[in-house]
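Journal club side-thread
Mid-discussion, someone asked how the predicted structure for our own chain would compare to the paper's figures. Pasting it here so we can look after the session.
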Amino acid sequence: GGGVERAKERIRRRLAEELPEYMIPAELIEVAELPQTRNGKIDRKRLELLPLENFNLPTDYQAPSTEIEKQLTGIFEKILNKQRIGIYNNFFELGGYSLLAVELTHEIEKLTGKKIPVSLIFNLQTVEKLARYLSEETGQFSNKILQKLNGDNTNKPIFFIHPATGSIWEYLKLADQLKTRFSVFAAQSKYLVENQDVSRTSIEILAQQYKKEICEVQKEGVYQISGWSLGGLIAFEIVRQLELSEGKTANLILIDTMPPKKQILSRWKKLLTGWKDEEVLFLNFAREIGLTQKEINLLIEGKNKSSSLDLIEFSFEKARELNLLKVSADLQFLKKIWQIYQNTALAQQSYKPAKIKSNIIYIKAKDADIKTENRWINYWKGLTSGNFLSKTVDASHYSILKEPNLSDVAEIILKNCS
């Protein structure tokens, strides 16, 4: 009944505060009691034998028919640790996440000898699409900065800009919830699609690159542009440039974006004496890619015990131990994301937002104290001569785009953007 569903929602909300998304169960089932061993401990073997009819197993099952489909289905089932995955079941809806997608590309390369860029997994989310791509290799799936996230609908576009990590995984589930009204596009860092070294950049340069691609998709009308975290800063600058050079207007949706800061700070800085700014910034990065606060505390303990410890190398080794990384190539991918994160975070230090005319919808996570919350709201309110709307979601900065909070964000966007 409704009481059980509400209880499940509370549990998911609590788990989202503590755990990375891949560790949150896809389904929760109610049992009368947990089976126990003679010693009074939970009997995990008997627990695994509980009937599965209540689980949210893949629906619309269609078995693989070709050899490549069978091979890919095997990879999906191995990586996602699920059985009976059909060729039309979506990798991300089944519990896939960014690092698993990296592993998926490596497993495909090992099996077929064909390399798929990680960025293409956004377009190739099912066994059927992957099999078609590998069989035909027509190059029909673009490897561009701007990716379409929710199918072939012809709705009005909305554009999301990557946060400091450069990736757009955070927006996949949000795209699904917006598909009734919007065609969702997301701009990812060019360094994730181009094989080149990461170099210094600025918010203005990034905005200019993304604005060009956005204007190719949408030629006229009011633009809908959004970004979570530091992505909101880039989105703000895109809107400013659209107004200035193109004479356009937009609805700007900022999702828990803080004002730019002159020095690299974090909530840990005051607790950490003798730490380099790069190391403090790395803790934020570690949290953003999915390490829990508990795991980050282990990194802090390790560094405090030995000031000569190379925190970043130590962290990547910890990530490997914690099974966040299953193959060595993942480590290279993660290091590249860290370089992108550093560069984007440094770019925001020198960015000075100038006032815009477009409307701002500011969606704030509730985890900041009321004084900080009001300061951020007033900051953004003061930067537009258009309408300003502020909404608060009962979430942390890191869980605002995870369920159940994600539905609240989607509802705000659907109600206030047209």
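Post-session note: Strands lie at 146-148, 156-161, 182-187, 223-228, 250-255, 359-365, 388-393.
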